[in-house]
Amino acid sequence: MENKEIFDNHKCNCIAFLNQKGIQEMEEYQFDEYTENMFVETLTYKETESIYMDIFNKFNEKFDLLIDFFEEEDLPAEKLSEAEKITSDFLKTNITDEQKFAAEKVLGVIQKAIECGTYVCFEF
Length: 124
Known about the structure:
Elements: H1 3-8, E1 12-17, H2 20-28, E2 38-43, H3 45-63, E3 72-75, H4 80-91, H5 97-116, E4 120-123
Antiparallel strand pairs: 1-2, 1-4, 3-4
Helix pairs in contact: 3-4, 3-5, 4-5
């Protein structure tokens, strides 16, 4: 498989935990599929790439994270309000439909985690 094919099939699962059981399941990987204790939005490689510099890279710089295509990274609860603002501000700019669709998925996950008092995990 060529590198392009690897990336084309690469996805980013953005996960908000709905409760402590969801967090525990993730920490212990006690699931074969995402459970009812997790709110998950999946971004394709193209969607992830379309918002990477304007959202994920800003999260990386602002919150000292390393969100990239080869790792799992958590966005802590105390950073979610600021991440929500970064994402909302991006949605107010002149962006493509693909960027809007992807950013709205990320924003929905962030808002769900805020509502539940948990955090977000980006899993690639």
